[in-house]
Structure formats: structure tokens, C-alpha cells
Amino acid sequence: MVLSRITRLLTAVPIAAIGLAVSAQPAAAPAMPSLGLLESGSWTLKPRDGTGAPRTMCLGDRSVLLQIQHGEAHCQRFVIENDPTSVTVSYSCPGAGNGRTTVKVETPRLIRVDTQGIDHGSPFQFSLEGRRTGMCQMPTR
Q1: How buried is 110 (Cβ within 10 angstroms: 0-12 exposed, 13-18 middle, 19+ buried)?
Q2: C-alpha–C-alpha distance, residues 32 and 120, integer Å
Q3: Roughly how many angstroms between the first and final C-alpha of the chain, as a whole number?
Q4: Could you tell me the CA-to-CA distances from 134 to 44, 49, 96, 137 in Å, in that order?
Q5: Alpha carbon distance 123, 113 (integer Å)
Q6: For every one of its 141 residues, what pLDDT tens digit does the chain have, with 9 covering 90 and above?
Q7: Contacting residues for 20 by C-beta, under 8 A, at least 6 apart
Q8: Is the pTM of this model over 0.85?
């Protein structure tokens, strides 16, 4: 009886140690299935309230939609909600600000982007409708 308890204990300790070692690894960025639904190409993003100029972008890396206001800034992201047709992230960009963005995929060619935050000390908040408008144009030389 005592011997079987000792055997079970000695077997459980290495298994627990392996579990701790595995859980100590940094987590990989979660997949965002909703962004994977979007078609690559040229997209036009228009303010939903009708103010402001539309933006055109060549969409390859879909994660750029998560921090439209902060563009190429190197930001840390935290996924708040990750559903099959929408994703919400909070992000922080050292020296540039922070934000919270929700991308809702209506179809592979139609999205809604709601974002708000602080950009270099100034607040921002806007809602965009994005539509795929065709293939990306190659730059002319």
C-alpha cells in the first residue's frame, strides 16, 4: 500500500514538472478567423458618418485593419473577443498611444471597422465601412 503510493507520487512529479515547463512557454498570437475571410486586394474605407475622405489601401496583411490610426507603429495587441465573423483588440503603441478596434466581417468583400483611442495625446474615434474594390495597382516607375 505504502509502496504503491510512493510509486504514484514519483510518477506524478515528473508529469507535473512537464506541465509546468509547457505552460511557462510564451503564448503564440491567436488566429483571427474573421480576418482570414477577407479577400486580398484594393479596399476603400469610408467614414460611416459621411465626414472625411475615403482611404484606399492594398490589403495583404489583414492585421493592419486592427490599428488603422497608428499605421506602421510597433504595437502590442491583446485580443478581447475573437469570433468567426468579428475580432476586437486592444493595443498599445509605446510613444504613439493606444486604441481599441473591432472589425466585423459582413462578407469577404465588406467590413465594418469601429476604433477609438489616443494618438500622440489626442483622442480619436471613428467608424468605417470597407469594401473591396478590385486588384491592387502596381506602382509605376
Answers
A1: middle
A2: 28
A3: 83
A4: 10, 24, 32, 9
A5: 17
A6: 554 554 454 444 444 444 434 333 434 556 899 999 999 999 999 999 988 899 999 999 999 999 999 988 899 999 999 999 999 999 999 999 999 999 999 999 999 999 999 999 999 999 999 999 999 987 665
A7: none
A8: no
